[in-house]
Amino acid sequence: MTEGGSTEGGATTGRAARELLARAEGLLGAARGVLADHGRAVDAVRAALDPLLDALVRDELSAIPASRLKDVTEGRLRIGAVEQAGFTTVGQVHGANRYELRQIPGVGAQTADQALAAAGQIAHAVRDTVTVRIAVESPDDATTALVTALYRLVEAGPDVRRAVDGARGVTERLDPLLAAAAPARGRLRMLFTRRPVRAQALAAVAAARAVMADAAERELPLLFGQVSVDLLRDPDSAVAAWVDFEVRSAEYYSLLAEMSGTGPDRDAAEGFLPSGIADRVRGLRLDDARLRVSLRGYQSFGARFALAQKRVILGDEMGLGKTVQAIAALAHLAARGETHFLVVCPASVLINWTREVRARSTLRALPVHGPERQGAFAEWREAGGVALTTFDALHTLPLAGDCGIRPGMLVVDEAHYVKNPATRRSRAVSGWSQRTERVLFLTGTPMENRVEEFRSLVRQLQPELAPSISTGHGAAGSQAFRRAVAPAYLRRNQQDVLTELPALVQVDEWEEFSAADLLAYREAVGTGQFMRMRRAAYACPATSAKLNRLRELVAEAAGNGLKVVVFSYFREVLETVRQALGEGVFGPLSGRLPAARRQELIDGFTAADGHAVLLSQIQAGGIGLNMQAASVVILCEPQIKPTMEHQAVARAHRMGQIRTVQVHRLLAADSVDQRLLDILARKERLFDAYARRSDVAETTPDAVDVSDGSLARRIVEEEQQRLAAGAKAEADAGSPAPGAGV
Question: Which SUPFAM superfamilies match (predicted)?
Answer without folding.
Answer: P-loop containing nucleoside triphosphate hydrolases
